[in-house]
Amino acid sequence: MTRTAELLADDPLWLILIKVVLIFGFLVVMTLLTIWAERRVIGRMQNRPGPNRAGPFGILQSLADGLKLAFKEDIRPVLADKWVYFLAPVISATPAMVSFSVIPIAPEVTIFGETTALQLVDLPVGLLVVLACASIGVYGIVLAGWASGSPYPLLGSLRSAAQVISYEIAMGLSFVAVIMYAGTLSTSGIVAAQANGWFALLLPFSFAVYLVSMVGETNRAPFDLPEAESELVGGFHTEYSSLKFALFFLAEYINMVTVSALATTLFLGGWHAPWPLSMIGDGVLNTGWWPVLWFLGKTLLFLFVFVWLRGTLPRLRYDQFMHLGWKVLVPLSFVWIIAVVIIRAVRNEDAITTQQFLIGGGIVVVVLLAATFLIPDKKPPQDHEVPHSGSDFPVPPLDLQVPPAPPKRTPVRSGAPDAGDSGAPDEGKEAPRGDV
Description:
There is one protein chain. This protein has helices spanning 3-9, 13-45, 61-70, 82-98, 126-147, 151-182, 187-193, 199-202, 204-217, 229-232, 242-267, 290-312, 318-348, 354-373, and strands at residues 106-111, 114-118, 412-413, 428-429. The chain is mainly alpha-helical. It has one domain (3-274, 285-373). A hairpin with a 2-residue loop joins strand 1 (106-111) and strand 2. The longest helix is centred in the first third of the chain and has 33 residues, at 13-45. Mean pLDDT is 82; it is low at 381-389 and 421-436.
């Protein structure tokens, strides 16, 4: 049992309740601040003002929007399944909050004279808890689309199911190399294993795969296909309003905070101070309440990346999105895992030095990137193949093309035909419809 697990096992009930309330309040406050910051940052990027009326710098705008949602009319479609329609937002929001319980925010601190760790629970399989919560959360989206009794929410929910399946596999594969180097699935153990170096520098490809996967997991741009307004009106929550819609909104931003905190835990040393601050005073900045500052700073950095992507990148096409998940991230992750296993086996035999290991890892990364961007994915079309639009999906056959428009009718003169005419009607009088 680790030191963190021992401290958490001795927590009294009142301290556990305080931690639960603090985690809930932290996630809600971070949601409000993230929404405000997203509007301000994107407004700055696009050279337009963000919210600037409610409170100083518009900082109370998110709170005003939350109050507005609470007082909006709650509408339920006639064809909706009543109980499933009601439970879907709850199923979506609850796992998002539960998954944050295994994130270590700081080591030993003192709260009202009680020594504890700023973490609700330290499980030996903490990473699996995060993956399980992410899997359960998608059930809320799928059930919301099915229970709404409308085709567009159903399509959005099916897209979300495909998205989670695709990118959760890649996310799980990005954990494998971290687990091998840390030797544990416990989140506090992974943070402790990065005391002398961050895994983002040691395992750069796993870090890159996780960055892409966490954006896909949270349905954020450029992977916001379940909520594609251009073709699905609003996606799975089209038929929701008032507090039920607010729960979906809350779940999305809490998931953003959770995956950002998990990225900090797995790859940026968790609550450890960045170098060279970690060298000051023999690590004094890694004790007490200082680690909370470093943890929050790293988490906010990832949240800024979310906002940055939304303000700069367009939405991917569905075939591009699935191609990236299944044909790029998953195969290259398997190759990376095999390379890491081989390198670790060689290092355990003391056959190479650390410098040689870093050089070899850099070569592996370069080869993987070259395989991704340089090797062509599609074979050239053959003579007997029917040309298509460039998509991996089938296109209608050529005989289903739209026929050309019929020729226009020409006006003719009215009155009796002249002697020299060939019997055609006069100009200005239309010929019978069957004669044209």
